[in-house]
Amino acid sequence: MATRLVQINMKAQDDSALGRFWAEALGWGLDSEGPGVTNLEPVGFAYPDPAAVCVDIITRPEPKTVKNRVHLDLATTSAAHQAELVARLRGLGATLADVGQGDVPWTVMADPEGNEFCVLEPRPVYRDTGPVAAVVVDCADPRALARFWGEATDWTVHEVADDHASLRSAQGVGPYLEFVRTPDVKSGWNRVHLDIAPYPGDDLAAEDARLRALGAADPGIDQSAISWRILVDPEGNEFCLLSPR
């Protein structure tokens, strides 16, 4: 058995407005499965497919108060493309952000609700990822999280070091999943988290047990009213185990 990363879940005070921003930013289509939920995926996309990690934006009343521990890195193809993308995103409502990055070749920005993201300088490794180069997770131990997520999913570990690690789908398509060592300590629930799903025919309860054996844990909340499972990884980052699909 294995799972695959299918989407990220992002909380928002206005899911529709934030969805419009990200749809324009990525050139994706948007839909809704109900009030307070906006779904984003590439136009013509057949969900789920490793060629893209989709985005679900969910309305929550709590305001953002701390730096997110999960963010998107956007890919560019040239210095001119990077400058053009930054300018276009500012026109859509994004702002420049300072998270202590110093003098770096990428541009740190925040969406209209303050969620951080990066517009990367052109890098050959991201030439075929699509608009999202990577889903990036802040952590204390990239090696340990790469080991957990490499076993939790069928994604392939590409690079592991003390300060960073990266994985990509077994098919070698779509964005990377990256873990970057940071000194920040997790505070409260993550407003952005990973959603994974088993393959069709797999058993949700068995997959839940397998993930717990690998180091996942129960967040200690009532889950009786939902059909999916909420777990935390070995560093306490929440993630959802969706129904097989």
Question: Brief overview, please?
Answer:
This protein has 245 residues and is an alpha+beta fold. Helix content is 20%, strand content 33%.
Structural overview:
The structure is a single chain. Strands 6-7-8-5-9-12-11-10 form an eight-stranded mixed beta sheet, with helices on one face. The chain has a seven-stranded mixed beta sheet with strand order 2-3-4-1-13-15-14, covered by helices on one side. A hairpin with a 5-residue loop joins strand 7 and strand 8. The protein has about 240 residues and is α+β, with helices and mostly antiparallel strands. The chain contains four helices and 15 strands. The two termini are about 15 Å apart. The chain is globular and about 50 Å long.
Low-confidence stretches: none
State the distance separating the first and last CA atoms.
13 Å
**Could you tell me the radius of gyration in angstroms?**
17 Å
- Give me the count of strands: 15
Shape, per Cα inertia axes: globular
Helix content: 10-25%
Secondary-structure-based class equals alpha+beta
List the helices and strands in order. EHEEEEHEEEEHEEEEHEE
Average pLDDT figure: 96
- Give the percentage of residues in beta strands: 25-35%
User: Largest sheet, order of strands side by side?
Assistant: 6-7-8-5-9-12-11-10
Helix run count: 4
Main beta sheet: 8 strands, mixed
Quaternary structure state of the chains depicted: single chain
Describe the secondary-structure layout.
Blueprint: E1 3-12, H1 15-26, E2 29-34, E3 37-41, E4 54-59, E5 70-74, H2 79-92, E6 95-96, E7 107-110, E8 116-119, E9 132-139, H3 142-152, E10 156-160, E11 164-168, E12 176-181, E13 192-198, H4 204-214, E14 229-232, E15 238-241
Parallel strand pairs: 1-4, 5-8, 9-12, 13-15
Antiparallel strand pairs: 1-13, 2-3, 3-4, 5-9, 6-7, 7-8, 10-11, 11-12, 14-15
